[in-house]
Specification:
This protein is α/β, with parallel strands linked by helices. Helix content is about 30%, strand content about 20%. Strand 12, helix 7 and strand 13 form a beta-alpha-beta unit. Helix 1 runs parallel beside helix 9 and helix 3 packs across helix 5. The N terminus is likely disordered.
Length: about 300
């Protein structure tokens, strides 16, 4: 399978992360990039002890663990803590790739390393277009690690995200006020029959024109980020900061939003339950799915060998 470099991902900014150790010939990779949902977590959204042990063993060898996810930082942080990789001190594992690459975040400093937001004018046009199609569509705006919306979520509706199950909005205000700041991600939520025409209009007007990236997360939800946001590009940029070549990077994922990351990494692995697009982008499909220790299989086979 041919390899194609991901595009450049942004400008340098200060890091709290210490410099990496020189490449150690005793370990085959210096960086392990892990998707969370559908890869590291089971279908029940749980971490298995065997997977935790494998990740910690890789970290113990000096492998930098990078969680790369569609999630915001606030719902990524508990996963890092459960893995034993975040204790409030500077750590090579405390930098995460969030919102599918729109944000690279320093968990210790609580600040962005790289940020690829939507411009305010474009964000306003997206929202106006969506509400013109369906006035009742929910609009949830993520600005860095803050959730802002103009309507309080209705928990009884069953419409939401994994993050909204444990976190509430940081701000409820008119969208005109919220969108004065560059938005990291905008989510549109509604019942599937109502959301479908909204998605079609947004894709036709903005996605097809290359103005924004539209990603469907569920039948009741889709999100829009900068057209430049991509896990693969974010991972390439982060590795470049630490002088880690792609040949020393292993990545594991399951979904279309992992495809470029799997292509770019020196070894891209798809879990057994992965979408066909992810499997096609990977070098290898693992024998196990996320319910049966796929991450542990990968680490034990390719890092702890």
């Amino acid at each position: 399978m041919g390899r194609h470099p991901a595009p450049h991902h942004g400008k340098d900014s200060p890091l709290t992360v210490p410099p990496p150790n020189p490449h150690d010939p005793r370990r085959p990779f210096d960086v392990l990039a892990l998707d969370i949902d559908g890869t590291l977590l089971s279908s029940a959204k749980r971490l298995a002890p065997r997977d935790i042990a494998a990740v910690r063993a890789a970290a113990g060898l000096g492998v930098r663990i990078v969680l790369a996810t569609a999630r915001p930082p606030r719902s990524t942080r508990p996963i890092l803590r459960a893995l034993g990789l975040l204790d409030g001190q500077p750590s090579p594992h405390a930098v995460t790739i969030n919102y599918n690459g729109a944000l690279t975040w320093d968990m210790v400093a609580q600040q962005p390393i790289e940020h690829l937001p939507l411009e305010p004018r474009l964000a306003r046009e997206l929202v106006q277009t969506a509400r013109a199609v369906h006035p009742g569509v929910l609009v949830w705006v993520e600005i860095l690690d803050r959730w802002c919306t103009d309507r309080a979520p209705d928990e009884s509706s069953g419409i939401g995200t994994e993050t909204s199950k444990t976190h509430g909005p940081d701000e409820i205000a008119p969208l005109e006020q919220i969108l004065a700041l560059p938005a990291t991600k905008i989510m549109f939520l509604a019942e599937p029959p109502d959301l479908a025409p909204v998605l079609e209009r947004i894709v036709d007007r903005f996605g097809a024109a290359g103005l924004a990236a539209c990603k469907v997360s569920d039948e009741h939800l889709f999100s829009v980020c900068s057209i430049r946001a991509d896990k693969g590009a974010a991972l390439e940029s982060l590795c470049a900061r630490h002088h880690v070549p792609r040949e020393r990077v292993m990545a594991i994922g399951d979904a279309p939003n992992d495809a470029q990351m799997l292509k770019w990494a020196g070894l891209g692995l798809a879990v057994l339950n992965a979408w066909d697009e992810a499997k096609g982008a990977a070098d290898h499909t693992l024998d196990h799915d996320s319910d049966h220790h796929a991450v542990a299989e990968a680490i034990e086979r390719f890092i702890l060998r």
